[in-house]
Amino acid sequence: MDHDSVRSPGLFPATRHSVIERIRDGSADARRQAFGDLIEGYWKPVYKHLRMTWRLNPDDARDLTQGFFAEAFQKAWLERYEPGKARFRTFVRVCADRFVMNTRQSASRLKRGGGAYRLPLDFDGVEQEVMARRVATTPEPDEYFHQELVRSLFERAVEGLRDECVAGGRQVQFVLFERYDLNPDEGVSYAQLARELGLTAAQVTNHLAHARRRFRERALEALRGLCGSHEEFRREAYDIFGVNVT
Amino acid sequence: MTQPSPGRHGGVAALTDAAVTRLKRLGSWPEFSSSRYLVVEEIGHGGMGTVYLAIDEELGREVAIKVPNISVSTTIDQRFHVEAHVLAALEHPGIVPIHDIGRLTDGRLFYVMKRVKGRTLQDHLPQVEDLAERLRIFERLCEPVAFAHAHDFIHRDLKPENVMVGAFGEIVVMDWGVAAVGSMRVDSIQSPVVSHSRESQSSVSRQSESSVGSLAAVERVHTREGTVIGTKGFMAPEQARGAIDEIDARSDVYGLGAILFLLLTDEVLDQEGDALSQLRGRGIARPLVAICARALASDPDARYQSVTALAEDVTAFRAGRAVEAYRETVFERIARFTRTYRTAILLVLAYMIMRAVVAILGWSPNSHLLSRWITGWFQ
After folding, report:
1. Which helix (H) or strand (E) holds A48?
2. What is d(CA A49, CA A41) in angstroms, rounded to the nearest whole number?
3. How far is the C-alpha of B300 from the C-alpha of A171, rounded, in Å?
4. A162, A172, A199, A200: best mutation site toward chain B, by most B Cβ within 10 Å?
5. What whole-number distance in Å separates Cα of residue B223 and Cα of residue B244?
6. How far apart are CA A12 and CA B336, in angstroms?
7. pTM above the 0.80 mark?
8. What distance in Å separates residue B26's CA from the closest CA in chain A?
């Protein structure tokens, strides 16, 4: 897998089909593109899972994350997913767990993963997140993986929203969203934001409503792309947001 | 500052746990995108529904919108019907008025009501230390409940969280979602909802009469025997037993009694124990103890038979009059009379003492002594 085969996060619009449908599409290009989307959505949760649940050191976690995705792509592991047996996110986590176990048994980290694959992923940044949220106890694997998958999903949706606002000349919309919704501990009010940014309260309300709507749409689209089937997408959307989607 | 703050490598900064939680909540907000309502913030979240502060863009005013939490639930949907109909039927300053009703694209019913600014009685109580003021709040709380009873509606979930205290001390009873509807009113309360209906909008459809269905049917489902409706600490024993047929206006009397208990003691009633023994030994006036205990009687026949009777007794106590719930001794009657008319009694006593002094000094053989004594004062 070369550098070009994995797309930089946030630069491409989310797809309407599930990732597994696209991976199985048959066309090599479509599969490669779908795999890029899959890595984009799953690499952070996988890395954090290896760091926190497996308690691997940063170097091993980094190598094994890259090795896992590279081998999954080459050996078509994820194509074996069966929607009736488990959710796709659980399948990905279990595949990652097996990859780590196999690698440990053969005691050949360098041979299997280390240095063999180089994906343009920001491991240093994620490592900072891991250290910032480090806990003494090992988290429950599935719960932790899901939690980090949601965080990664939201980060991508927020990043997409930011790019959209900047491209559309609506920076103020994202600034409001960032101040009010992404920093809820700040406790800033609509009136304060209106004063600070020279807006009316109605403008703040409208901008925030628009940004929230777009965030939600983007998050749902990204989620749809990460699920194994439409039914799974509905279930995941309900679990995350508590709402039914069509 | 109108530039988004860049995160690492030009992306956005990593999201905190608080931000993730907030974004999850945002994702659960109802979609009103093609309607006249713009959601501003979530202002209340309960087991049945969530209340949002929104802007009515057509009229340019703030409103509150209540939406059920679960999208597909017949029971919840029916309870929302009931609540909307109750609010539409009851026009009283102490009952929040409903403006609109409709359905979201996902099928959930919602209704729009006046935004009540203030805080719940639960939150307001620590600011009120004066007993007389607390009793005045209680009397005002009784008014909308009595009004609802007069129109054959029973609230069934009276508790401090369901009572809002406005900035000017106005009391508004909220959350009529589990209210019982009297059969006599069923037909008459269907029309207001139909009159609220307007043309359908693209994504938010209005409630039609046929989809509303018969409120009587709703009530039958709503009041299925064995269903426990209410909140522990505030629900009447018959509600706790699920004895739906026994629930009537006197169940609300019990709920008000439990609120009165809280107002008097700052504690929630322990329903396992005897109310009277929990009230005694706290320095609460005996008539008030008796009022509260009667409202909290396990047997509905032993309670006040109406909210009005309960409120009148509280008013009587506050005005220093005898209360129906307590038979006072002669000494207590004299003491109450003395307390109530203290100023008048003191004036009469002073007058009588003065007359006595004048009489004694004026009728003595040395009656000139009085004039000499008074003259001496001024020399």
Report:
1. helix A28-52
2. 14
3. 63
4. A162
5. 6
6. 82
7. no
8. 7
Amino acid at A190: Y
Radius of gyration over every alpha carbon of chain B, rounded to an integer in angstroms: 29
3-state secondary structure of B178: coil
Strands (E), B57-186: 61-68, 98-103, 109-114, 118-120, 153-154, 163-166, 171-173, 180-181
Q: Measured between alpha carbons, how far is B144 from B163 in angstroms, rounded to an integer?
A: 11
Domain span at A198 = 3-241
Q: What sign does the CA torsion over B118, B124, B128, B134 have?
A: positive
pLDDT digits (tens, 9 = 90+) for B312-336: 999 999 998 999 988 888 888 888 8
Within 10 Å of residue B217's Cβ, how many Cβ atoms?
Answer: 12
Taking the CA of residue B336 and the nearest CA in chain A, the distance in Å comes to 52
CA distances B79 to A133, A138, B242, Å, are 43, 44, 17
Q: Could you give the number of structural domains in chain A?
A: 1
Q: Which residue has the tokens 């008796």?
A: B290
Does B23 contact A165 at a Cβ distance shorter than 8 Å? no
Number of neighbouring beta carbons within 10 Å of residue B164 = 21
pLDDT at position A9 is 36
- Which of B3, B27, B40 lies nearest to residue A216, judging by beta carbons? B27
Nearest to B83 by CA among B63, B70, B65, B71: B65
Q: In this structure, is residue A246 part of a structural domain?
A: no
B319: Cβ contacts below 8 Å, ≥ 6 apart: B340
Residue with the two structure tokens 């988290």: A139
Both structure tokens of A195: 């004063």
- 3-class DSSP state for residue B172? strand
Beta carbons of B172 and B119 less than 8 angstroms apart: no
Tell me if B262 sits within 8 A of B269, measured CB to CB: yes
The half-sphere exposure of B83 on its side-chain side, counting CA atoms within 13 A, is: 28
SS3 A108: coil
Query: What pLDDT digit, counting tens, does each position of B1-11 carry?
Result: 455 554 444 55
pLDDT score, position A186: 83
For residue A169, being part of any structural domain is answered with: yes
When mean pLDDT is compared over A6-10, B25-29, B241-245, the highest value belongs to B25-29
